[in-house]
Amino acid sequence: MTTILDGxxxxxxxxxxxxxxxxxxxxxxxxxxxxxxxVGHDEASQxxxxxxxxxxRKMGIHSVVRNLPExxxxxxxxxxxxxxxxxxxxxxxxxxxxxxAHINEFHVTTAIAPQKDADGFxxxxxxxxxxxxxEQTPIACTPAGIMKFFKAxxxxxDGKKAVVVGRSTIVGKPMAALLVNANATVTIAxxxxxxxxxxxxxxxxxxxxxxxxxxxxAVDVKNGAVVIDVGMDRDAQHKLVGDVDFDxxxxxxxxxxxxxxxxxxxxISMLMAQTVSLTKWxxx
Length: 284
Ligand code: GUN
Description:
Subunit structure: Homodimer.
CATH topology of the largest domain: Rossmann fold
Pfam families: THF_DHG_CYH (PF00763), THF_DHG_CYH_C (PF02882)
CATH architecture of the largest domain: 3-Layer(aba) Sandwich
Binding site for NADP(+): 166-168
Domain Tetrahydrofolate dehydrogenase/cyclohydrolase catalytic: 5-119
Order of helices and strands: EHEHEHEHHHEHEHEEEEHEH
Distance between the termini: 47 Å
Mean pLDDT: 98
Largest sheet: 6 strands, parallel
Pathway: One-carbon metabolism; tetrahydrofolate interconversion
Bound molecules: guanine
Number of helices: 10
C-alpha cells in the first residue's frame, strides 16, 4: 500500500496555523511584510513569484513584488536590498533565484540582513543550521516543508538511511543538514557521484532535487522507501512532471510526493510561515 503525500492538504493546514499567528500579530497592530525581488523575465520564476504574491495577499501579509530589469548591476541590486533591510514595513526579503549571470548570488544573499532572510540562505543562518541551533533561525523553505511532511505523516528519521540527490544551497545541502540533525544517516549524491543507483537503492528516505524529468525510475528505489520529489520539470509534451517517474515508482514506495500538489505548495506555505516568524522574532 502506497501513501501519496498530499502537499495541497498539508499546505492548507499549515496556512490555517499561520493565519492564526497573523491574527495575533494584527491584534498587536503588526502586519508582516514580505518583499520578493525578481530580476529579469524568466518565465518559471515569474510564475513562482506570482504564486507567492497571491498566497501572501490572501493570508493578509503585506506583499511587495519588486520587478527589476535584467540589466541591473549587482551594486544597484544590493543598494535596493539595503533599502529593504532598513524598511520597517518589511520583515522578510526574498531574491528569486536564479539571477542573471553577471550578478553573484553569494554577494546578493549575503547582503540580506540575516533577521530578514526569508530563504535562510544567508551564511549566518546556514551556519546555525549546521550547528543545529535553529531556534529563531530561518531555514530554506523547500527542505523545511519536506520536514513537515515527515512530521505530519509520522515518518521516523532516526537511524534511517537517507539519500539526498542534488547539492544545491536551495535544497540539497540544507535538506541534508535537517536530516542529519534528525539523526538520519545521510548521503548527498550529485552529478559526479559514481554508481548513483546503487546508493539510491539503499535509501529508506530518498529526496530528489536535480531538475531532470523522470530522473529516478523504479529500479533506483528500495521497496517501501519514502520518496520525496522536489522536481518541477517539463516532459516532452510540456506537462509539469517531477524528477521521479511517479507512475513507476509509486508501486514500490511506501510514501511518495506527487508533482504537482506535493512539495511545491508546502514550499510556499513555509515561506508564509517564515515571514510571520521573522516578524514575531523581530517584535520580541
Ligand atoms: N528559486 C527556486 N526555488 C527558490 C527558493 O526557494 N528561493 C529563492 N529565492 N529562489 C528560488
